[in-house]
Amino acid sequence: MVAVIESVTQSRKSPTAKFGEGFTYDTWWFAALSADLKPGALQRYELLGEPVLLGRNRAGEVYALRDVCPHRAAPLSAGRLVKEPDGRETVECPYHGWRFGADGACAAIPSLVEDQNFPVEKVKVRRYPVAESQGLVFVWMASDPRNPSEPDHPAPTFEGVVGGKPKMVERMDFDAHIDHAVVGLMDPAHGPYVHQQWWWRSKHSQHEKAKRFEPREMGFAMARHAPSKNSRAYKILGGAPATEITFRLPGLRWEHIQVGQRQVLGLTCLTAVNEKKTRITQIFWSDHPIVGAIMPLFRIGARAFLKQDGDMVNLQNEGLKYDPALLWIDDADKQAKWYQALKKEWTASRAEGRPFRNPVEATTLRWKS
To answer: pLDDT tens across 239-257, in order?
Structure first.
């Protein structure tokens, strides 16, 4: 079956937007690793086209504020963290010294004199809810900035975060909307053409695949299975590896490999920076002894994979400039269709104030790669 991509993504201008436009709101977005946020430091991020200050106070608590001072629009992240007389820590704007707490409320306007009754307590910058777990920092991005929603579901957690700190972290920015980045990375048929390494696979070695897929929370999974025979890298792990690959809105994809009692987790976080840029963060954990030994070579391979995907995104952009209709087929593009259906249902459930109903049904997909 051939399908033409339809409008399903949520945007602030309308409930739906064309594929490659708008973002998924009212959920958690991966923003940073815990190790990226040092106590007392202020860091500027862009999430879904919004400027966000991420910081950690000296007590170790993470917070997020809109990185625009309401006075003259200077980035608060260019300021500093100061201590108030009552012991609270606030962010001081570098322009005129206005200070804001982690809750977004203004704590002081230094230029006011004693008899000027300006309502300081009514001045606020937007606060973003933050969740920190398993060494990851997530930010809740609400759809309505004037009346932002509060989290009604927990930030995701992942099976297989083992072996202490991540064994590897790689980052790369793709010049693409997150829709194109997501469907590109989950595409099962591009491997033999885009990723041709002697240690991985060749376009001359293509097998017919049949994989069982099942619905998962806010997404779906390729159920646990033995890796394909033409995927050579798994053989390094020894034993009988079994892998499960999961996708979850808004842009999380992870592979959990079990080899006996040992585990490997490869998490790919896709974060929408803005309409034309997506940040890819790949994180690997493992308690398998061979992983530490091969990590230098594995890092080279991971960088090569990301670069090849990024190069293909840039090549694809040459065609996307002409706004063509895109054709998706079963079964190789079924995951891309599910991604769009999930976003459409998420948007509808939030707009209608009802529980999310996962549109993915368990099935077996077949393709050749």
So the answer is: 678 899 999 999 999 999 9
